[in-house]
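Translate structure to sequence.
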C-alpha cells in the first residue's frame, strides 16, 4: 500500500469520529435544555370545579338489589267452557273490557236443543208424579174404608216416591242443560284490557281452549327472588325504588307479600312488591332497583371516583397540591342528588371528611402529580 493512500484512510477515519462526537454532544445539549420544561409539563395538571368532589357524610339507605318482570295483580285467561264453533269474537289486543261484558259466543244451537229436551223430560216426570199422587190418594181412601189391603197402599207410596225422584233428576238435568247454554256465552270476569287474542271467529274450540287474556294494569306487581339470608331482613311495607325499562323516572314500590316457603333447589324466597299503575307501564316489562332495609350515616364519595385498576380499590385525593392515591374499602350504595347532580354514592372507609377527591371524569392521574386549580376553585 502506498504511503499516500494510508494517509488518506487515516484522515477519513478521524473525520468520521469527529462528526459522531459532535452529533452526540448536540443531542446531550438539546436534552439538557428541553428536559426540565418537559418534566414540568407532564407533572402538572389543571383542575376545574367539576373535577373535584368533597368526601362527605350523608344519610344512606342500605338496600338489597332486586329485579323482576312486571305482572298484573289481576289477570284472567278466558277459556271456552263448552265445545262448539266460536262466534262474535270482536275484541282485539288493547281493547278495554268490563267485568261481565260479553267477549264472544259459542254456537248455542246444540245447547238450546238440549235445554228444551231436558225441560220436556222434567215436564213428563212432573206428570208422572201427579198421576202417582192421585193413585196414592185413591188407595189411601180405599184402605180407610177397608176395601183394599195395606200392602196396596204401600206399593202406591213406593210408586209416588219413585216418580218424585225421577222428577228431581229431570230438574237437575235441566239445570245442567241451562248451565251449558249459559256457558256458550263467554264473558270477561274482570275489568281490564285484552292482552292476547288466542282464537279466531269460526274456529271450533274444545272445552278449556284459550280464547283471550285480560289484564288489569291499575295494580302491577314484581315477583323478586331473594336469597334466604337477605329475605330475613325484608318486612311487609318496606319501600323500594325501581327503574323500569322504557321509563326515565324511577318508580316507588312497596312490599305487599312475602312467601312463607323457600323455592326448591335455589332456596330463594319470593317477595312481591306492588307498583301503582302508570300509563307507560305494561305487563312483562323488566324492572330492577334497590329495596331499602335500613338507614345509616356514612362517609361517601361518588362511585365513579373509586378506581379499580390496582389490586385494591382506591381514590385519587388532592393533598398539598399533589395527587395521592388512597386505598379504600367500599360499602353501601345509594343514589343522591348533590348540587342538582344525581350520582351513585358509595360508602368508603380510609378517607377523612372534607378530603378533595378527583371525579371519575378526570381519569387516571399518576401519584405525585402537581395540581393547579382554575380561578375560583380551591
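Result:
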Amino acid at each position: 500500500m502506498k504511503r499516500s493512500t494510508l494517509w488518506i484512510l487515516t484522515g477519513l477515519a478521524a473525520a468520521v469520529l469527529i462528526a459522531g462526537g459532535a452529533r452526540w454532544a448536540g443531542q446531550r445539549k438539546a436534552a439538557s435544555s428541553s428536559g426540565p420544561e418537559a418534566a414540568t409539563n407532564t407533572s402538572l395538571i389543571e383542575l376545574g370545579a367539576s373535577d373535584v368532589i368533597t368526601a362527605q357524610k350523608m344519610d344512606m339507605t342500605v338496600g338489597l338489589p332486586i329485579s323482576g318482570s312486571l305482572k298484573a295483580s289481576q289477570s284472567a285467561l278466558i277459556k271456552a267452557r263448552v265445545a262448539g264453533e266460536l262466534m262474535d269474537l270482536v275484541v282485539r289486543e288493547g281493547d278495554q273490557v268490563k267485568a261481565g261484558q260479553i267477549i264472544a259466543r259459542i254456537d248455542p244451537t246444540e245447547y238450546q236443543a238440549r235445554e228444551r229436551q231436558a225441560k220436556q223430560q222434567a215436564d213428563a216426570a212432573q206428570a208422572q208424579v201427579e198421576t202417582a199422587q192421585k193413585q196414592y190418594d185413591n188407595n189411601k181412601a180405599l184402605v180407610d174404608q177397608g176395601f183394599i189391603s195395606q200392602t196396596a197402599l204401600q206399593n202406591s207410596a213406593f210408586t209416588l216416591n219413585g216418580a218424585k225422584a225421577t222428577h228431581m233428576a229431570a230438574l237437575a238435568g235441566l239445570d245442567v242443560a241451562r248451565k251449558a247454554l249459559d256457558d256458550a256465552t263467554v264473558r270477561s270476569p274482570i275489568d281490564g284490557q285484552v292482552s292476547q287474542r288466542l282464537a279466531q271467529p269460526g274456529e271450533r274450540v274444545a272445552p278449556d281452549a284459550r280464547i283471550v287474556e285480560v289484564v288489569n294494569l291499575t295494580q302491577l306487581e314484581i315477583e323478586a327472588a331473594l336469597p334466604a339470608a337477605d329475605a330475613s331482613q325484608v318486612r311487609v311495607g318496606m319501600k323500594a325504588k325501581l327503574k323500569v325499562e322504557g321509563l326515565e323516572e324511577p318508580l316507588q314500590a312497596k312490599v305487599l307479600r312475602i312467601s312463607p316457603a323457600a323455592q326448591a333447589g335455589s332456596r330463594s324466597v319470593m317477595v312481591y312488591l306492588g307498583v301503582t299503575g302508570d300509563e307507560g307501564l305494561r305487563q312483562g316489562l323488566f324492572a330492577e332497583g334497590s329495596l331499602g332495609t335500613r338507614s345509616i350515616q356514612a362517609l361517601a364519595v361518588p362511585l365513579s371516583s373509586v378506581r379499580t385498576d390496582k389490586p385494591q380499590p382506591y381514590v385519587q385525593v388532592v393533598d398539598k397540591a399533589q395527587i395521592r392515591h388512597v386505598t379504600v374499602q367500599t360499602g353501601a350504595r345509594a343514589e343522591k342528588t348533590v348540587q342538582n347532580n344525581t350520582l351513585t354514592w358509595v360508602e368508603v372507609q380510609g378517607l377523612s371528611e372534607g378530603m378533595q377527591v378527583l371525579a371519575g371524569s378526570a381519569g387516571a392521574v399518576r401519584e405525585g402529580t402537581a395540581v393547579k386549580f382554575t380561578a375560583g376553585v380551591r
